[in-house]
Amino acid sequence: MTIQRKLLLAGCIAGSILITGCQDKSNPETSKAAASTAVASSVAATTPTATPADPALFIGEPLVKNIYTADPSAHVFNGKLYIYPSHDIDTGITTEGEGDKFDMKDFHVLSMDTVGGAVTDHGEVLNVKDVPWASRQLWAPDAAEKNGKYYLYFPAKNKEDIFQIGVATSDSPAGPFKAEAEPIKGSFSIDPAVFKDDDGAYYMYFGGIWGGQLQRWASGTYTTEDKYPASNEPALSPKIARMSDDLLQFAEAPKDVQIIDGGGVPLLGTDSNRRFFEAAWVHKYNGKYYFSYSTGDTHYIAYAVGDTPYGPFTYKGIVLTPVLGWTNHHSIVEHQGKWYLFYHDSSLSGGQTHLRSVKVTELTHNDDGTINTIDAYLD
Ligand code: FUB
To answer: Is the CB–ligand 1 distance for residue 190 below 6 Å?
Structure first.
């Protein structure tokens, strides 16, 4: 570890007593890094003004620095890369609550012709005030294209403060998008990721525990009680649903996505280094389906491989080790013959967990189909 990284982490330790709620106890480095959230400037930071962490610590720079961006979902539309991120802002909320500090109100779209080239911020493309059913917290979005029409999928809390997933449409990948009047029927929780298979079928993967409320749907209907699996029980599963032809609804009731170990046994809820937490993404490589996701309180992007879009997916390893900040969220996309990992960290805000920035780096698959693990820090 470099001396700079040691200093950064040491600075974070000073604030650790202010941290509450779902903080990681098993990964001291990331817990300490996330602790800087609590001690950093409380000044509203809609436009980045905080002192950034030393860029020399990291393998990549934020794609944009005029705003904070997170949860990047990258797609290639018409030969160009479009990134659909969350737009992080500081609205002055200081409690950790159930992710209350992630109080995002709108979406921007970013685009670039090629990785490493100029990045365009297309500005606000949807605001929560223009989503009739939503009340707050526009979290991680995704997008899809069909027949020249573009679909922006996004989670938001409804008027009862329950997360659901909505869709908004546009004739351009860069928006602006017009929201449907109602959320997708039967949708719940967060982090939609829409995957188009080679046969033209579209599937939505979604779900997120803790702030994402997946643990409140264990019985199939919403309950205000948090129900996590007992130590010998399988982990909570992310969900999948095939999309209707018009991409505006589910064509079937959401099903569980099973993540199993090499012996075919579902991962347990207590297996926090490997079990699903949030941030589902699917890419297809050499005919196999790669389901990647965040392990949340252990801060990894992990992946599992399956033979169909529905799984089961067998756990294979780590795509990305913990980044600066509590959350880890990504997408994987092929462009101009190379594969890329889009991810975020809190380097631009000096470690404030709810003020993140989107970055990109190359991702490589080995001959046996495994993914080479990426470390976002330079050592
Ligand atoms: O950006 C808000 C939430 O943080 C996302 O929905 C999660 O995946 C995490 O990145």
So the answer is: yes
Q: Is 371 within the bounds of a domain?
A: no
**Would you say 154 and 126 are in contact if contact means Cβ atoms under 8 Å apart?**
yes
- Tell me the catalytic residues: 71, 278
Q: What is the pLDDT of residues 18-61, one digit of tens each?
A: 222 233 323 333 333 333 333 233 334 467 888 999 999 999 99
d(CA 142, CA 167): 10
Average pLDDT over residues 327-349: 98
Integer Cα distance of 327 and 325 in angstroms: 6
| Residue to mutate, 190, 342, 352, 357, ligand 1, most ligand atoms under 8 Å from C-beta | 190
- For residues 25 and 174, membership in a common domain is answered with no
Domain that holds residue 93: 65-363
* Helix, strand, coil share of the chain (percent; to 5): 10, 35, 55
Q: For the chain, first and last CA: distance in Å? A: 5
Lookup: tokens for 44: 């509203």
Indicate whether 46 belongs to any domain.
no
Question: What pLDDT was estimated at residue 19?
Answer: 27
Judge whether 20 and 330 are in contact, CB under 8 Å.
Answer: no
Which of 37, 139, 213, 294 to mutate to test ligand 1, by most ligand atoms within 8 A of the CB atom? Answer: 139
CA-155 nearest atom, ligand 1? 6
- Cα 147–150–152 angle (5° rounding)? 145
Q: Does residue 289 sit within a domain?
A: yes
| Cα–Cα nearest to 191, from 291, 272, 266, 339 | 291
Report the predicted TM-score, pTM, of the whole model to 2 decimal places: 0.90
Q: What does pLDDT average to over the chain? A: 90
Q: Where are the alpha helices (DSSP H) in the chain?
A: 3-13, 28-39
Distances (CA, A) of 115 to 20, 111, 118, 284, 331: 38, 10, 8, 20, 14
The count of domains in the chain is: 2
Asked if residue 16 has pLDDT above 70, the reply is no
Whether residue 55 is contained in a domain is answered as: no
